[in-house]
Amino acid sequence: MYKCSLERMSDKIKTFSTYGDAGHGGITRYSLSEEAIMARNEFKKRMEAIGAIIEVDDVANMYATLPGTDPTAKRIVMASHCDSVKNGGNYDGILGVMSAMEVLETVAEQQIPHKHPLTAMIWTNEEGSLYPPAMMVSGIVCYDYLPEDIRGKFKYEDMMASKSILDPTKTFGQALDASGFKGDKKYRLNPDQYEYMFETHIEQGPILEDAGNDIGVVDCVLGMFNYRVKFYGQAAHAGTFPMAKRKDALFASAQALCYIHEEIDKLNHPELVYTTGEIVCHPCVHTVIPDFVDFSIDARHEDPKVLEKVLAIVKSCEDREWAGCKCVVEKAWNRDTVYWNKKLVGYVEEAATEAGIKHQFIHSGAGHDAQFASYMLPTTMIFVQSKDGLSHCEPEYSTPEHCTEGATVMLNAVLKADAE
Amino acid sequence: MYKCSLERMSDKIKTFSTYGDAGHGGITRYSLSEEAIMARNEFKKRMEAIGAIIEVDDVANMYATLPGTDPTAKRIVMASHCDSVKNGGNYDGILGVMSAMEVLETVAEQQIPHKHPLTAMIWTNEEGSLYPPAMMVSGIVCYDYLPEDIRGKFKYEDMMASKSILDPTKTFGQALDASGFKGDKKYRLNPDQYEYMFETHIEQGPILEDAGNDIGVVDCVLGMFNYRVKFYGQAAHAGTFPMAKRKDALFASAQALCYIHEEIDKLNHPELVYTTGEIVCHPCVHTVIPDFVDFSIDARHEDPKVLEKVLAIVKSCEDREWAGCKCVVEKAWNRDTVYWNKKLVGYVEEAATEAGIKHQFIHSGAGHDAQFASYMLPTTMIFVQSKDGLSHCEPEYSTPEHCTEGATVMLNAVLKADAE
Predict the structure, then answer these.
(1) A279 vs A222, B37, B285, B346, CA distance in Å?
(2) Closest to A240 (Cβ–Cβ): which among B254, B258, B365?
(3) Are strands A273-275 and A292-301 parallel, antiparallel or unpaired?
C-alpha cells in the first residue's frame, strides 16, 4: 500500500488555481485559452521533471508516460481535463489531471515497480464552454466506438467548425491551429496501445459528504434523457387583451412544470433526479403576452424503466390543455446507463479498503470523458467528496486531504491492474 | 358633418408601409432611423403640399400647421408617432400621424373654415424600441407637468445618454444630432400656444371587433403597476444533486406564477388584465439547477382599489415557501388611471354619433404620448378597430374604411372644439 503526498498535492492545487484565477476564489479557464496553455505547460514541466515522455495528439490531448518494466505491456492511462466552465472552481477536471500527475510523481519518487507504462493525460475541451459541445474531444477520439446516435454529434469536421460562443468568427479548429498544441494523430488514445483508463473527479453532489465518506467508488454513469417542452400561444398587448381570450405561453409552461413535478414525485423514486434548467420565452417583453416558451427537462436514473415512466409523464403534456396553448414535446438526446468495468471498480474498492479510507459505491449523475472512453477501453472512475455538493461554481471545494486520498486510491488501484 | 377621403387614406397607408418594410407584411422602423426619416420626409412633403408650415423642435418632434381665421386662437394639435417596434405592423403610431394628415388635407381640400390653427404632429421615439424608455420624448416635453414619480425617469440628460440596444456605443443624443431633425426648443408643444390635443390610435385589443363597433371613444388610460418577482435559490449540477436538497429558483417561480393566477382569478374582476411577459433565468443551462429567476407582473384596471387587492396577492409571495427559495417582490413602476378631458371625450362621441359610425366607450390599456400630454393640455383619444386585437406584430391590421372613419371622427371632433 503506497501513499501519495499531501504536501505535493496541495502545492499542485495552489499552483493550478492561479491559471485563470477570476479573482474571487475560482477560475475561468476555457480550453486552449492562454490560461489553459499555462496549465498545460505546468503539466509538461512537472512531468518532464520526473522523466515522463510527453506526447501530444492532433486534437491537443497531452500524454505524459513513465515506461514500465514489461516492453510488451500496454499503457494504463489516468486522464481528465484542465478546462473549466465560466467562473468555475479549482477542482472540476483539473483534480483528475493533478491526481494522475501525483500518481506518476509518487511512482517516480518511491521508485514503485510496475510492468505497464503509466500515462497521465489531459483531455482537450471537456466542458465545451467556449466551443460546444461538452466532451467534444473524447467524442472525436472515441468516435469509431461510440453508439451511432451519440457518434453523429461528434463528426470531426463539425467539431473543427464549432463556433466560439464569444466570437462567432472564431472556430475550435482555428483555436487548435493557433494553440501550439496540435500534435500527431498517431498519439491519440487507442485500444492497441492502452489497456485501461482511470478518471478521478470531484463528486459534484452532496452524497459522500452527507454519508461522512471521503471517496466514492463509482459504478456507472446514470442513464438520462433530455427533452424540450414547447408551448405555442398568441402574442398580444398586456394592457389591452382580455384575460379570457389569451393564449399565454408562459403561464402554460408554469402550469405544465408544476404538473410534471407533481406527477413525477408521485412515482416516488428517491434516486431519480430531474431538472428544468433552461427556459426560453418569446418575445420576453413585460408588456407583451408571450407567444412561445420552450423549457428543457433532464432526468437521470440508473434504471431505464424508471426513465420510461418519467418520460411518459413529460410526453403526456402534449395531450393536455395549457392556457389555450399547444404543447409539443421533442427529444434533444438521451443515453443509457454506462457501467464501469467491474474488475476495475473492484480494484478501486479494494484499494480504498486497504488504505483505510472511508468510501462507498456511488453513481455518477454527470457525464465525463471516461464515459466515451469506456466504449473503447475498460474504464472506471473515483469520486472525491465535494463540499456542499457544489460544482461548476467558484465555491466548489474539496479538501487537500480528500484530494490526496483520491490519488492514493487511484495509485493503488492502478498498481492492482498493473499486477494482473 | 365633413368626411375624410378613403382613397387618400388608403394611399397614405400604402406609402408609409414601404418605409421600413420588413418583407412579410410588417415594418421595423426605429425612431430616427433611415426608415423613420423617409416617413418624416413623406409627412413634410404632403403637409407642405397643402400649405402647412413645418416646424421641428429640439427633440425632433415635427409640427405641420394650417393657420386659422382667429389670430388670437391657440393651436389644436393631432399627434402620434411614426416609429415602430421590431417587426411591428403598419398601424400602431403611424395611423395617428396619417389621421392627423388626413384631417388637415380634408380641411385644405374642402376649405373647411376654422378659427384655430390646426397642427398635425409626429412625436419622436414613442416605442423606445432602439433607445429606451417608451414615451421618451413626450416625457421630455411634458416634464414640468408630470407627477414627480414619473418625471424622474425622463430627465433630459439621461434620455440623451440612453444607449442603443443594438450598439451600446451609440446614444439617443448622438442619433438626434445625426438625424438632421434637431430643431429649436421654442417649437416644443406647450400650453401657451396649444389649446387641445387629440390622438387617434389602433385599439390593440379585440373589444371593438367583438362588439361589432368600428370606433372607440376612449375615456381613460387604465391605472397599472409593474413589479418584479425574484427567487433566490442555489445552483447545483442537474445530474448529481438530490431532489430533496434542491433550491430550484425556476420551479419556485412556476409555482408562484400559478399561485398568483389562482388567487387573482378568485377576485373575479372581468375587466382586470395582468401579465407575466418577461422571465429571466440564471444560469439558464439545461444541466444546472437555476439559482435565480426574476419575472415581471403587469396589472391594469381603472379602479385603484382593485389594483391594491392584486398587488397584495403579488406581495404575499414573499411570505410563502417556494421550493426552498427566498422570494422578493420589487416595484418597477406604476401609474394612476389617467382620465381624458370630459369635454373632448364628449366631442368625439358626438362626432361619431353624427357621422353614423358604430362606436362605444372604451378604456385604453396601453400607454400613449397623449397620456403625458394630458398633464399639460386637455387631451383625448380615438380608437380604431384592430383585427383580432393584434398589435406590435406584423399581422396587425385595421381596414382602410375603419382608418378613414377614425380620421372623420377626429376631424369633426376637432371642429367642435374649434367652434367653442
Answers:
(1) 24, 38, 9, 48
(2) B365
(3) antiparallel
> With an 8 Å Cβ cutoff, is A204 touching chain B?
yes
d(CA B217, CA A330): 47
ipTM: 0.87
The pLDDT of residue B103: 98
Residue A279 has pLDDT above 90, yes or no: yes
Question: pLDDT tens digits for A117-169?
Answer: 999 999 999 999 999 999 999 999 999 999 998 999 999 999 999 999 999 99
Note which residues in 230-249 of chain A have CB less than 8 A from chain B: 235-245, 248
> To the nearest 5 percent, what fractions of chain B are helix, strand and coil?
40, 25, 40
pLDDT reading at A4 higher than 90: yes
- Angstrom CA distances, A351 to A45, A195, A347, A363, A415, stand at 29, 19, 6, 18, 9
Chain A residues in contact with B257 (beta carbon < 8 A):
250-251, 254
Return the number of CB contacts < 8 Å for A and B: 197
* Dist CA B242 CA B116 (whole Å): 75
Long-range contacts of A61-64 (CB under 8 A, 24+ apart): A61/A121, A61/A122, A61/A123, A61/A124, A61/A137, A61/A141, A61/A187, A61/A188, A61/A189, A62/A121, A62/A122, A62/A181, A63/A119, A63/A120, A63/A121, A63/A187, A63/A189, A64/A101, A64/A104, A64/A119, A64/A120, A64/A121
Q: Taking 90 as the threshold, does the pLDDT of residue B285 lie above it?
A: no
Q: Which one, of A406, A403, A412, A301, lies nearest residue A346 by Cα?
A: A412
- Which pLDDT band, with edges at 50, 70 and 90, does A195 fall under? very high
pTM score of the predicted model:
0.86
| 8 Å CB contact of A240 and B205 | yes
Contact map slice: A 99-128 vs B, CB within 8 A? none
* Residue A60 falls in which region: left (phi positive, over 0), alpha (psi -120 to 50) or beta: left
Nearest CA in chain B to A221: B239
More confident residue, A24 or B409: B409
Residue B368, C-beta contacts closer than 8 angstroms, at least 6 positions apart: B80, B126, B135, B199, B201, B221, B381
Q: Could you say which DSSP state residue A137 is in?
A: H
Residue at B384: amino acid letter: V
CA dist B101 and B305 (Å) reads 40
All 3 cell numbers of residue A118? 503509466
Rounded (5°) CA angle A361-A365-A370: 80
Residue B393: pLDDT band with limits 50, 70, 90: confident
pLDDT of B392 strictly over 90 = no
